[in-house]
Design a protein that fits this description.
By secondary structure, this protein is an alpha+beta fold. The chain is about 30% helix and about 45% strand. The protein has one domain: Alpha-D-Glucose-1,6-Bisphosphate, Chain A, domain 4. It contains two helices and seven strands, in the order E-H-E-E-E-E-E-E-H. The chain starts with a strand and ends with a helix.
Length: about 150
């Protein structure tokens, strides 16, 4: 499953980047995140930053451990999470466009497990719609936070 969602934010890419990398405070303004716990903080840069994020998904609380695997400061960071045989990769990108910033999130989920693949194929339409809705809401929350200043 691959998903890409974006939004235009009336602000500079620097301000958007500051917001999306302020991990400790994200639960204060991204409604979908119930809590966030930093597990590992690199001495410099974002690669290797690791955290646990708790969200309410499908009526239940779910906690995922994520870490940053790739980053170009001020442009994008990519995260990875693994759960029950599935691998989830997300990439959050900022791109200055005149006085605005295009914020894009790409998400992909893969599995090496036959049973997870079988279940995913059956549930893919439902899961994809739910993921698009969740990502779009996260981006809307980021937009509102940054534009409030």
């Amino acid at each position: 499953m691959k998903i890409s969602v974006n939004t235009i934010i009336e602000s500079s890419s620097e301000k958007v980047w500051q917001a999306i990398t302020d991990f400790e405070n994200c639960p204060n303004w991204i409604n979908g995140i119930l809590s966030l716990k930093v597990l590992e903080q690199p001495q410099e840069g974002l690669i290797g930053f690791k955290w646990q994020e708790t969200r309410k998904m499908f009526g239940k609380e779910a906690t995922e451990t994520m870490w940053i695997t790739d980053c170009v400061d001020g442009e994008y960071y990519q995260t990875r999470a693994e759960n029950h045989g599935a691998v989830y990769v997300s990439k959050l990108m900022v791109e200055q466009q005149d006085e605005q910033t295009l914020l894009t999130m790409e998400f992909s989920g893969t599995s090496e497990s036959f049973w997870v693949n079988l279940l995913s194929s059956v549930m893919s339409v439902f899961m994809k719609k739910s993921m698009i809705k969740m990502i779009a809401q996260d981006l809307a929350d980021i937009k509102a936070y940054v534009e409030r200043g």
